[in-house]
Amino acid sequence: MDQSILRITKELADLQRSSDLAIAVACRDIDVRNVKALIIGPHETPYEFGFFEFTLKFHKSYPSDAPNVQCVTTNGGRCRFNPNIYSSGKVCLSILGTWRGERGEEWSSAQGMESILLSIQSLMSANPYENEPGFENANSPDDKRKQAAYVQKIRHESLRISVIQRLEGYLALNPDGTKIAPPMPSDDPDGEVDIDESTIPFEPFKDLCKRRFLWYFESYMAAIRLGQSETTDGTAFKNMPFESGGGNGMEGRFNYRDLERRLLNIKEALGSELTTWAKDGLTAQLSDSTVAVNLRHQFEQMVAYFRRGDVPHSVALENDNAFIWILTYFGRPMTNLDGGMIRIKLHFSPRFPTEQPRVIFQSKIFHHFIAPDGTYCYNPPASAVSDVRSHIETILEVLEDDQPARTRGSNTTEDFADLYKIAWRTSPNEPSRPAAEMPYTRRRSYLSHLPGLSSVSFGAKSEKMPAASIFKALYVH
């Protein structure tokens, strides 16, 4: 086999098995030389949790020669998201040979798909203004104002173009929230139409972006609030000195009120999808569809598996619907979740495993992979996407990790950040003390009887505590 094909195939497999939440790659089975990649905008940058898509075209001379890389997220060639990412899609990087570089910065066969994508993501910095050659040390008061203005418009357009427009397209939503009419059916009386598979849109990140949108939703809303505090709707974007005419810039006006409305419409539409999945799932059961039969069989296997286990976890179907599973998790003895009982709902699509399950924690639990509304983010096992047991084991494995590592692209919410300042008191008149000082058994009994978290203070003077102590102090209520 062609050595370049072997190299590309291995790199694809390595990236797809990776736990990195910030990068995803895919290609058609019949064409591994044309790869699509999704880069999640880094946290604490104006690109935060945006969905930026790129194409990588590999030549037969790869890895001796670098692939051709193009940015697809350009609003139809009208938006330049970075001094090094043009509206035409061109990506200026020395390792790609699209920009002059110092000795040692050129492409070599030791480079690969991952190093390219990480290099591109590094361009999405907190201050992209300084990426422009000659502006690296531009720190005059005027430059500072321009830097802030550049960040403000990138944040706005990252939300509008990379997130909102993408999700509206996936959900067939107009900007006003109404549904786009589906295409008319064929006029062929026999209903037979020859379809060229190469003409069918290849959207490998559609399901991924939907799930990530739900996980990042609160961060998007926080970006809206920040933008509203810094700008006024209707104000035109400021042009930067390095932005040229002819569309190679970022022109427009702020309109955060409209972006907020559209974000809420998308959230509602994604919620409606779960209702549709449940309804269509019951219909699929009646017709004994392949997916319905498979899910019920896997459910029965999962019930038997839990019965043989040493911890009394259980799984049930909601309304006997094989497309909605209720997982009840019991914390293992001598772990941070000891004594906890957590209820988790798994929604399955009639198109499973093409569409992955959406996992929602119905019990309140603080974890950086769980959004405030309970949406859970995890990487499905690449080699077993159709095996529900593998999904559940992955979910529980991350949940039981005593020292959860924060990965690139993981969510950060104000609520989770506040947990590092948590304090406790036994009465309103007692001074607050760090939760880590509370005996473990007392933390459990104390917090298990709270109707909510209103009795737990989040004082600014509270001492910081490690993540492991957080989960011991507050695991569920």
From TrEMBL:
Residues 3-163 form the UBC core domain. It is an enzyme of class 2 (transferase). Transmembrane segments: none annotated. It is found in: Cytoplasm; Nucleus. One of its GO terms (cellular component) is cytoplasm. One of its GO terms (molecular function) is ubiquitin conjugating enzyme activity. This is Ubiquitin-conjugating enzyme E2 Z. It comes from Akanthomyces muscarius.
